Amino acid sequence: MRMVRHGFGLVLLGVSALYGAERAAAAPLLPHRAVYDLKLVSVSDTSDIEALSGRWVFDFSGNACEGYTAESRLVMRFETADGSRLIDRRVSTFETGDGRSFKFKSESYADDELEQEVEGSATLGGDGVTVQYTKPEKAEVEFEAAKFPTSQVIEMMDKVREGKRFYESAVFDGTEMVDDAVLVSVVVGRPKELTGPARKVLGDLGKEKFLPVTMAYFEPGSEQEGEHISDYDVSFRMHENGVQTDIVIRYPDYSMAADLIEFSPGKIDTSCTKGPKKDR
């Protein structure tokens, strides 16, 4: 049974403007708190999963001057023929506004017992990314240039404004101890109106158009017989300010949905206009 990574979209993040190459400047990302209900969508013939339920709470704050902070907690209960299993994943990150410095902490619990803890920092320089892990052990790894999570969102919006709706990007999210970035293949559709329950949950923001996005994630070493096989893929609707809804995550043996049930927008700091001031 493949457990969900925390970096799905999480990928994981109102302005009243439509998307398009004619946009002169990027909309600022919106600080917000979002709560999603998790449910099972489908299972493969070989899967042992009979039911899935849970909740995901995501808090995002900051701006390009002070940097971006994300707090995420995802709790899921899997029911199988052998019994139930409770999974609890907690992630905290901080990324500077220029996308060159990233701090991360991730904890994974199974039935209230800590199974994995990953903590450290990463920097993006001229030679690529350098990651300094402090947990589960001290280690340093280096690999080619990659985006950190918030920079990935900003990159997507930049690509859309340039008219590019299919591209690939390397991403490091700090949720697991790895020695290379994850390759992400991104497909972005034309903006559409929301039609489901999330439209009401989002209030005035729900009246605006959202981009349909699909991301396929390729873990390091996923190439098989000359072909790249994605580890999992995620589809969702995304506003240009980073808010996501209608999330579906597909693994080889099961698929799950994250339905937005609560949304609390924060305030955008209008004094931030020139970019990052400092690191932490």
UniProtKB/TrEMBL annotation:
> Which InterPro entries does the entry mention?
EipB-like
- Record's superkingdom? Bacteria
Tell me, what's a Pfam family for it?
EipB_like
Q: What is this protein called?
A: EipB family protein
At the highest ranks, the source species' classification is: Bacteria, Pseudomonadati, Pseudomonadota, Alphaproteobacteria, Hyphomicrobiales
